[in-house]
């Protein structure tokens, strides 16, 4: 196999004058312990190839790809907790040659017998602002197992804005680290509250992202890493998004969440990620209907941490239950909405608000067995807050 690959790729060189070109990516999504999806866009529909294997053997397997512009390549049968390398080959039009357009690595998730992992989280980034780009440069310094986005990847949700506001700022990180995305209200577009918003996600979002098939993609899903389970929800119906799935107790999304929370007793950690916050003292504040619907369910199944967006600030609550600080039975809610869009100020005081900062930021979480540590960094790379949680 190696001899055949070596012969087939013997003509590799720098990109010829007339050759297919990467227009977007590669970017990684939908990772698990034994798979990942590699996505990329070529400037014109043309044949492409991906080779991959356990590092440093990048050419253990070779997959020919169809002549399309948008490439979605799920790689199955990977080894858990293993660094793999991959190479993308594109066509040189004026000869029979191909050339190597990209080479990178990624590491698959650990299994439950290795109870540690790290992840980076941020949200409300779609802006193409200097602050967004400064944060992106700081994020590149870290090597998390994955990245969690709390929503509003794009300012108006339009595909034509995606390169400037999402794919280019995070290109180095996207090529080596899987991103898991939460839908925000801006991702539904400007017409989210009217009939004109019908089909917006199908046109601008769904064709370009891969979501775990554990719920109703791209709206809600869960994924497992090591000894933890992450539930990603679509809460935009509470904000008036006409075509977002409901999340009230009689809804399909609510019943899905209830079912899989009840089946997660064996997980040491349970995280919920959503866009519109349950508890916030920022500009948007708390949506009472959302709290009424979700808080009893999160309490019942002992969710450890809720990550939120929507308000363009950083906020960490005390453990809170029924609107009151509760160290024994409450849940901590963390708003990570300072990814690049204009910042919000604090609008009111609440006893359950432990820290509020109107700063651009991202958070890095390190989980080891039953201990969690969060470190929040600002756009200069300085520590803005820390938080620890032991079970």
Task: Walk me through this protein's architecture.
This protein has 391 residues and is α+β, with helices and mostly antiparallel strands. The protein has two domains: 2-107, Sandwich (Immunoglobulin-like), CATH 2.60.40.10; 116-390, 4-Layer Sandwich (Purple Acid Phosphatase, chain A, domain 2), CATH 3.60.21.10. Helix content is 14%, strand content 35%. The protein contains seven helices and 20 strands. The chain has helices at 2-8, 130-139, 162-167, 171-174, 200-204, 252-262, 288-300; strands at residues 22-29, 36-54, 61-75, 83-91, 98-107, 116-122, 146-149, 179-181, 221-225, 228-232, 269-273, 305-308, 314-317, 320-321, 324-325, 332-336, 353-357, 361-368, 371-378, 383-390. It has a seven-stranded mixed beta sheet with strand order 9-10-11-12-16-13-17, with no helix packed on it. A six-stranded mixed beta sheet has the order 8-7-6-18-19-20, with helices on one face. Helix 6 (252-262) links the parallel strand 10 (228-232) and strand 11. It is globular and about 70 Å long. The relative contact order is 0.12.
